[in-house]
Amino acid sequence: MAEACHGLPLTPREVRKAFTPEDLEDWLNGSLPQDTLVTFSQALVQRRMMDEGKRPPSYTEPAICQNCGPIWLWFSGEVQGCPWCWNRIAHRPIPRPQPVCCGDCAHFQRIDHPHMGHCVQGEPEGIAGLWDTDRRHCERYLPRPETT
After folding, report:
1. What gap in Å lies between CA 95 and CA 103, rounded to an integer?
2. Structural domain of 109
3. What does the pLDDT look like over 4-27, one tens digit per residue?
4. How far is CA 82 from CA 18, 21, 49, 55, in A?
5. C-alpha separations of 40 from 8, 35, 108 in Å
6. Is the pLDDT at 147 greater than 70, yes or no?
7. What pTM was estimated for this model as a whole?
8. What whole-number distance in Å separates Cα of residue 52 and Cα of residue 54?
9. What is the pLDDT of residues 34-51, one digit of tens each?
10. Listed residues 30, 51, 72: the one ending a domain
11. How many domains, in total, are found in the chain?
């Protein structure tokens, strides 16, 4: 297992802790191939990076997730769900490939001014608040649900 972690910011103990009981059984009886262990270890490092709101090096293309909005992926296009959905669910940051519009965000709460509001996630804003057409790189942006 140490070989699978070589060069990665990960210990064999962390890899073993991430195993399911079935994975552990396969590893103990020697039926878990080394290349699978290496890939699993790399995936753990990538997930840790994403949990911290950092874009993995292989995520080079801007894409759109129906639930998360503009995201980075390893391909471009539109998707119904993405790896960043785990961050959205856990209220973790999501790096954005492009600026987003505050008024389109589920966290934008309007005040009695027709174009102004505040971010309920506490993102930095001016003393008067945010203009609904403000465009900025916001890791807390979530698309406002469409009303039907």
Report:
1. 18
2. 99-148
3. 999 999 999 999 999 999 999 999
4. 21, 26, 15, 13
5. 12, 8, 38
6. no
7. 0.77
8. 6
9. 999 999 999 999 999 999
10. 51
11. 3
